[in-house]
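Study this:
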Amino acid sequence: MRTALQPMKPRILNVEDDNLVQDVISGLLEQAGYEVALSSTLADGLWQVQSEHFNLIILDYVLPDGTGLELCRAIRRFDPHTPILFFAK
C-alpha cells in the first residue's frame, strides 16, 4: 500500500502481442522504476486507456485485432496529450 510520503511511479501502458518482446520491454522499464501495465490487443489497450491514467503509451504497430495506428487514433479522440511511442520490431 502506498502512503502519502511515497511518490507514485510513472505509469506506462505497453500494448504488444509478442510475449517475449512484451516481457523484455516491461522488465527494462520496471528496472528503471516505472509501473508497467500490459495489453496484447487493440480492444484491451483501448479499454485500459479509457479506464486508467498513464504517463506514456507504447504501441506495437501490428496487433491481432488491428494496428497500433488505429489504436492511436482512437486514443487521440479523447486524450490528445498523453505521449504515445510506436515500437516496431
Notes: The longest strand covers residues 11-15. The two ends are 36 Å apart (CA to CA). The chain has three helices and six strands.
